[in-house]
Amino acid sequence: MSRNPVHRVMGRWETQVHAYLAHRRQLGYRLRTAGDELVLFARHLDSVCHDGPLTTDACVRWALSAPRARHEYSAWRINAVCGFAKYLAATDPRHEVPTPGLLGRAYDRTQPHVYSPSEIAALLDATRALKPVDALPPHTYRAFFGLLSATGLRCGEALALRREDVDLAVGHLTIVSGKPGRTRVVPIHASVVDELAAYARRRDLAFPRGPKSDAFFLSRRATALSYQRVTDTFVLLRQSLGWRKRPLPRVHDLRHTFAVRTLLRWCEAGEDVDKKILALTTYLGHAHVTSTYWYFSAVPELMAITGRRFAAFAGEGDQ
Length: 319
Fold this sequence. Notes:
CATH superfamily of the largest domain: Intergrase catalytic core
Structural class: mainly alpha
Distance between the termini: 90 Å
Order of helices and strands: HHHHHHHEEEHHHHHH
Strand order of the largest sheet: 1-2-3
CATH topology of the largest domain: hpI Integrase, Chain A
Strand content: under 5%
Radius of gyration: 24 Å
Number of strands: 3
Number of domains: 3
Mean pLDDT: 86
């Protein structure tokens, strides 16, 4: 006789955390790692029978409870709890919201490497030496890294492209379920269309019996490229080019470079960046415009332009 599965009953705090995560995800946030941490936090509160409203002390004690954890991790944990605390306090002000930065700085965002045009050209040229040189990989990686540099796509978004997502007749890409879980259409320049069309022809000639995947970018075995394979190949290319200066260039920095170069062009041309940046935010697939404005603080060239503009605005340029 079959036995009914036993379902674990969630406690009070875990139930509230799941309600919070469902609410946030309806707004488009994924909250994968942070969501997992919040579930652990809620189970901890339930296990110690924490009664009454949420307190800062309870949040701090949990954030510091991870064994042998670095202080950045503890700071990140309590920051993850802050959103949940605000959610609770919105309907019951007895809940305490921890002060931002209470446990110090969480993990810093990695300083990006901004590629020069010559570096991008060198990277794409280096793909020609990938082995086997007479097979598909050199063409695949040249087209792949070229697309990232020309559009600012996330690596995962480019890897997820299917043939039906790449409309070369119209000249746009359909990014399905990009961050934060939304689909968007990305127009591409005519030169990018030409490069992708040339790659598609070579790709189809390489597999006359048909591929094993409907992915746009294929490996030499006719399967979809993997993130690990892309990063391993990039490291090989970086080593072959002798790039050793810190911060070491990364695949994701092609996206940073696209955003930075776009902002630099606008600033140098005297454009009203505040009016145009929403379009860049949408193009890049950022959930919030603040994510796009971060590039100003991340790159010295943009900070310098911002400083000069502020000086002019303040009248210091006339002194």
